[in-house]
Amino acid sequence: MKCGGSSEVKPADAEVKEICQKIKGAAETHAAKKFECFEAVEYCSQMVAGTNYFVKVKVDNGDSHVHVRVFKSLPHAGAELSVHSMQHEKTSACPLEYF
């Protein structure tokens, strides 16, 4: 992946699943609601001065999903995670795209 361009959409791996578990509380605060589950399904990423992760997350036992944009700072800056933005009312069929 080149710097600034986003990667292809891939199935969520262990790293992305762990990131989602770490930011679940922040995502619930951002959405102003609690999610039944918070399971990463697929993602793409973008290298910037850190990494942006665009993640499709299953949030209930039906077909409700959200798309979450998470920023991970560079290691020298603490590799901190923050929820940048979210898209709501998505389904498994909704394509994951840059936002």
SSE run: EHEEEE
- As laid out across the biggest beta sheet, the strand order is 1-2-3-4-5
| Category by helix and strand content | alpha+beta
The level of helicity is: 10-25%
The largest sheet, given as strand count, sense and whether it forms a barrel, is: 5 strands, antiparallel
Q: How many DSSP-defined strands?
A: 5
The helix count comes to 1
Residue runs with pLDDT of under 50 for 5 or more positions: none
What is the average per-residue confidence, as pLDDT, rounded to a whole number?
Answer: 92
Structure characterization notes:
The chain has 99 residues and is α+β, with helices and mostly antiparallel strands. It is built from 1 helix and 5 strands. 23% of the residues are buried. The mean pLDDT is 92.
In terms of topology, how is this protein built?
Layout: E1 10-11, H1 14-31, E2 39-48, E3 50-58, E4 65-72, E5 81-90
Antiparallel strand pairs: 1-2, 2-3, 3-4, 4-5
Short précis:
This protein is of the alpha+beta class and 99 residues long.
Q: Which tags fit this structure?
A:
99 residues; alpha+beta; 1 helix
